[in-house]
Amino acid sequence: MNSPATPPARALRVALLGCGNVGSQVARILLEDAENLGRRAGAPLELTGIAVRSLDARRDVDLPAGLLTTDAEALVEDADIVIELMGGIEPAKSLILRAIGHGATVVSGNKALFAQDGPELYEQADAAGVQLSYEAAVAGAIPILRPIRDSLSGDRITRVLGIVNGTTNYILDQMDSTGASFADALKAAQDLGYAEADPTADVEGHDAAAKAAILASLSFHTRFALEDVHCEGITSVTADDIAAAAEDGYVIKLLAIAEMLTDESGAAGVGVRVHPTLLPRSHPLAAVRGAFNAVFIEAENAGELMFYGQGAGGTPTASAVLGDVVSAARRMVLGGPGRTETTTGHVPPLSIDVVRTSYCIGLEVADQPGVLARIAQIFAENGVSIETMRQRIHQGGPDGGTTAELRIVTHRAPEASLAATVEQVAALDVITAVSSVLRVEGI
Ligand code: NAP
Q1: CATH label, 355-440, candidates 2.60.40.3500, 1.10.10.10, 3.30.70.260, 3.40.50.1700
Q2: Hey, do 12-140+315-334 and 355-440 end up sharing a CATH topology, with the first three levels equal?
């Protein structure tokens, strides 16, 4: 049995390196949601400083005075947890190594650094016995690295297929849905802020390749580097390619693929590649639209699994970063793997009556004037508004006349109001039967 956690003597000191798209949102949430995060972590998380290049640059968040600093090295030396969100190789790498050297736990979202120098960083962290987490480095908000590393560690992954670059998925999706050329779709992506002024890293597949190396390393328990990844971008995909694929029932996606293979001699190995790929429209990854990301995993025992969500953006990515921070803090406070669940929420369960949902109601009614008005009145009296109503007339009712079948889909309303509406409608003398009542979600 777990023994109750002893409250820590002091707060955990958190140093943030970078206050850009992601760092600013991590800072905001750390400050705004400090109480919740501290409860889940098992210790208060104290943001001790944020390292930036320029103290005068405009920030997306209101920060307490004195938090920003240009002295990243001093900040790192005084921290229990270092969050690296500067990007690039240097000085991010040296600062992470310095943090490891001081015994600090490190959280990062830096795919470029982990794809290039991951093995060195893991070795240093292992040697120092400190934790190094980088969930945000692949597919932004989507929890994918921890499921691969932890949840699937009792299985054998055979193949990973990922849409791990939102910019290229947006461009290909635009080309597919509007018939646009690559150049026009890229321009649209740039206008919307999905693509940078220099889109090379995205459209040439380099960003996806870095993520493929990380996914392959974790999936196959072997360290793969960027140079192990075969990489082709989407710049040569034409509107004609997309149209021809569509005619044959395919969609073109830039996929990161890592899979177990055997070579000519029968020896097992792993192929890691990034390239534009035709996928049947029926494949779950074909439905991933716009700038969204998804990772599809095939495992020997689990079968097929799919993870879907926002692959970029300051706030979504901050979610993954803070998940790593809370998890790391828990380990530091409690030792070992930490608690398997937290019960600090104290949120009561509520009755289904207060759930807001939509109903699809099938009714068989007498085909008489005024019936629809009587039904509509009951909906209105219960505060339930109707989204759609469809009527079908059948010959040969009980008295040889006609009957009507109604299918009504409601807007969202409290379950209690919906249930009362159905009960009152069912009691009307013009209703022959309530043929079905099903709840509707996702509209
Ligand atoms: P960003 O907007 O460019 O922000 C970088 C921050 O780091 C800035 O605040 C910058 O300071 C600071 N910085 C850079 N070099 C520095 C140096 N030498 N010394 C001190 N501070 C320095 O980057 P981002 O988009 O937030 O991305 C951060 C990391 O998260 C990257 O590794 C990226 O790959 C990863 N990531 C980003 C996303 C996303 O959606 N953006 C998604 C997943 C992962 P100044 O503000 O003073 O210039």
Answers
A1: 3.30.70.260
A2: no
293, β-bridge pairs: 309
Compute, in angstroms, the gap from residue 415 CA to the centroid of ligand 1.
46
Residue by residue, what is the 3-state secondary structure of 125-176?
HHHHCCCEECHHHCCCCCCCHHHHHHHCCCCCEEEEEEECCHHHHHHHHHHH
90 three-state secondary structure = coil
**Residue spans per domain, the chain:** 12-140+315-334, 145-312, 355-440
Task: Tell me how far apart the alpha carbons of residues 178 and 290 are, in angstroms, rounded to a whole number.
Answer: 12
pTM of the model: 0.87
Q: Does pLDDT of 131 surpass 50?
A: yes
Q: Ligand 1 in contact with 72 (CB < 6 A)?
A: yes
Residue 219 Cβ contacting ligand 1 at under 6 Å:
no
Q: How far apart are CA 440 and CA 360, in angstroms?
A: 6
Residue 96, ligand 1, Cβ within 6 A: no
- 12-140+315-334: which CATH topology? Rossmann fold (3.40.50)
Mutate which of 211, 317, 321 to test ligand 1's pocket (most atoms within 8 Å of Cβ)? 317
CB of 110 shorter than 6 A to ligand 1: yes
Give the ranges where 276-413 is alpha helix by DSSP (H).
314-334, 371-381
Give residue 183's pLDDT. Answer: 97
High-pLDDT (> 70) share of the chain, %:
95
- Residue with the smallest CA separation from ligand 1 atom 19 is 53
pLDDT in tens, 344-356: 777 788 888 888 9
List the one residue out of 273, 281, 282 whose CA is nearest residue 173: 281
List, by residue number, the catalytic residues: 211
Grade residue 249 by pLDDT with cuts at 50, 70 and 90.
very high
| pLDDT tens profile 39-74 | 999 999 999 999 999 999 999 899 998 999 999 999
Fold annotation for 145-312: Dihydrodipicolinate Reductase; domain 2 (3.30.360)
